[in-house]
């Protein structure tokens, strides 16, 4: 290749690629898109069969894996390894705490919180979990509904991200390892062998998981945007229009960011958080404030008190062995856990990137405890308001859901419409959905670009446009073909394999951190008294 070619856009794109990881990931994405285009019914049948097999036969594995991650994160916060530095001992954090938390939260929460905020609790209120054993649409069902919503979006949701981030950050900033998922297994295969087949396999699994997670997120939020246009403005799109709009938006936003609007995207992220806070505050003040506090407080107490039981609940006692009400567990808890696993490669890399100079305890506490503390008020407010309005006849949210074929994306619009200044709040909610879609499209294509270039932090425009086109097409085809159900199935199928990598990350941290004498206030090298992976540490 000539120097001139290598300096061009195509040359830059070709030079940056990890051919194996990009090639396999690209082929997988293209094959799935083609399958939905030419063999839609057979593809859906295959997904449904695979999904049912996973949550009936391996649902327990998703639950046990996530519970183990939560337990280990709590140990990192409270135990002696929490003071281990992700960087040099005298190195200050790269970002202030406020900036660090804002970036971490924006990356980890994605747009799912907007989609499910008004919807999940009202579903649990109408059809309670068998775990709670309460009567549908009762006062007890309201508490149980918020309790399970907190469970699905609380400590567990954030733990997988932190578990991936910490070992990567440690090896990148202490051992000059590359910023890639396969860095996790560096102590096992050797940091000079991160181009080995085992390392490639880890990176390929990360790409596979991320494809499923991205398609789920873009499909859900894109559908919520389209439903909002139809609900508020009567603008309806057919199947072809849905594919064109979601794919076109994804590519357009990807191109705009890739061409250098980084400051704009950062501002959009701040705007998202600000509008998110405004909508939460408006619904809390204009809505049933006392009810939100009363039911939300009791639900929070139940969540804390019954966390272990909920984490391991499969409902086996309900049906004599095949699984719980496997329908509820599979449709909700297993789906969510798989979704978090599928987003762990990207979010973990991003958290690792911004965590230089922080301690293990700071990353774990910020990523799990602080993020949960910010998330719970949103769901308490949105869910509590939805349930109160439904039970008091102020808004027929369940009736609207039924009229729309139980399309979860519509739940937020009648909620805001029923509040004072409803038209303004509905418009702001639609704006928030749109801007979250922008940031999701940008961050997701950036993630796949990083994963397929060996950790390059600024992949080329061509790389990101390719992934934007494929992910937009896949998300819209999943939405058209099978709706939310197909998106959930995609997340469960894609997220499962990466759960193994998160458990491997725990094992690596135990091995590496166990070779350090770390106490709550300091950290010391034990290389003179132990023979473990830390004996070659570069301190």
From TrEMBL:
Cellular localisation: Cell membrane
Residues annotated as transmembrane: 21-39, 59-78, 98-119, 150-173, 201-221, 241-261, 273-293, 334-351, 363-380, 424-453, 465-484, 490-513
Keyword Transmembrane annotated: yes
Phylogenetic classification of the source organism: Archaea, Methanobacteriati, Methanobacteriota, Stenosarchaea group, Halobacteria
Statement: the UniProt record of this protein carries the keyword DNA damage: no
PANTHER family assigned: HIGH-AFFINITY CHOLINE TRANSPORT PROTEIN, HIGH-AFFINITY CHOLINE TRANSPORT PROTEIN-RELATED
NCBIfam families: bcct (TIGR00842)
Identification of the protein by name: BCCT family transporter
Bilayer topology: Multi-pass membrane protein
GO CC annotation: plasma membrane
A family per Pfam: BCCT
UniProtKB keywords: Cell membrane, Membrane, Transmembrane, Transmembrane helix, Transport
InterPro entries for the chain: BCCT_CS, BCCT_transptr
